[in-house]
Structures are given as C-alpha cells and as structure tokens.
C-alpha cells in the first residue's frame, strides 16, 4: 500500500562478532538480526516490510517514524533509516495458492475425471465468472 522509512537501531552486542541485532524503536516487536552488516541490512528491510504488512492487514495505525537523532543508541551501535514497501509482499500474498476442500457426488467426480477436468482450474474459472472478474490474477 505504501512506502515507509523507519529508523532502526543496529546493535553489535558485546560478544565481539560481526553480527547485529536490529530493532525499530517505533515498532515494538519488530526485531531481527544478521551475522554481518550486509545480512543485517537485508534482514532489517525484510522484517520491516513483513511487520508493516501485518499492521496494514490488521488495520492498525502505522506510527510516525521518530527523528533519528532523537534516538539513544547503545555503545558501538548506530541508527540507519530503513526503507520498506509493502506492495511486493501484498502482491505475493495475493498470488499465494489457498487449498480448499469441497464435496461433490461420486458420479459427478467420476464423470469429470473421465473427461480429464482440472477441478482447481474449473473452480477458479467459475468463481471469476460468477464475480465478474475478467483479469488473470
């Protein structure tokens, strides 16, 4: 639905590794990590997009991002602004297949199978026809 910019705290911790824990001060519970800088940046974007997509789906209010220089950072850590778009995730979720179980009489099943009918394709076609949907999704 939208593009977002949120500040993230990259905390190297105290174990001496190259990894980072990434948190978003404005989004409690949005946490990820990476074993190095590149992975942490990638994971930050991925986590932010998924978190915001969930908030959009739940009709939650997306908070305004904090001003980066107003955020306190742990020793050795830093702030980076992460850009995220929920459009890609939304598109992928809409294309995701959903399994449905249905019941039809045996005689109808036998007749359809003998004609080589693809039940999934036929059901999709019939639903789109009923709803007046003309595009392939």
From TrEMBL:
<dbReference type="Pfam" id="PF15919">
    <property type="entry name" value="HicB_lk_antitox"/>
</dbReference>
<dbReference type="InterPro" id="IPR031807">
    <property type="entry name" value="HicB-like"/>
</dbReference>
<dbReference type="InterPro" id="IPR051404">
    <property type="entry name" value="TA_system_antitoxin"/>
</dbReference>
<feature type="domain" description="HicB-like antitoxin of toxin-antitoxin system">
    <location>
        <begin position="7"/>
        <end position="123"/>
    </location>
</feature>
<dbReference type="InterPro" id="IPR035069">
    <property type="entry name" value="TTHA1013/TTHA0281-like"/>
</dbReference>
<protein>
    <submittedName>
        <fullName>RNase H-like HicB family nuclease</fullName>
    </submittedName>
</protein>
């Amino acid at each position: 639905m939208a593009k977002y910019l949120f500040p993230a705290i990259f905390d190297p911790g105290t174990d001496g590794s190259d990894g980072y824990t990434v948190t978003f001060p404005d989004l409690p519970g949005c946490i990820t990590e990476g074993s190095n800088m590149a992975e942490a940046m990638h994971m930050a974007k991925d986590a932010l997009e998924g978190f915001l997509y969930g908030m959009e789906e739940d009709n939650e209010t997306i908070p305004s991002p904090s001003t980066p220089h107003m955020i306190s950072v742990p020793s050795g850590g830093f702030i980076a602004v992460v850009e995220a778009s929920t459009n890609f995730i939304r598109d992928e979720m809409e294309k995701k297949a959903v399994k449905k179980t249905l019941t039809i009489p045996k005689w109808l099943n036998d007749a359809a199978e003998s004609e080589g009918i693809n039940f999934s394709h036929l059901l999709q076609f019939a639903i789109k026809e009923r709803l007046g949907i003309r595009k392939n999704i």
